[in-house]
Amino acid sequence: MSLSGYLSVLADSDLFGLLAIYCLAVAITGLFEKPRNTLTYRALAFCGLLVVPVLHAIGTYFLNQAPA
Fold first, then answer.
1. CA 16 to chain CA mean position, Å
2. Which of 12, 19, 25, 58 is the most exposed place for a label (fewest CB within 10 A)?
3. Would residue 68 count as lying in a domain?
4. pLDDT by residue (tens digit) across 21-38?
């Protein structure tokens, strides 16, 4: 299986549903001041925000490849 085939299967899986649940959990946790001020929360929020542009960049790269 090629990398582009793997990524297309991954995109059709529950990846985006899990990402939505993850971001919802981070957002709800952010409503409370005590956990919001921790380094762990900030790292989790940063990772959640970083996933979407990374997936976009990977998808754009593979969409711009010449067909084999």
1. 7
2. 12
3. no
4. 898 999 999 999 999 999
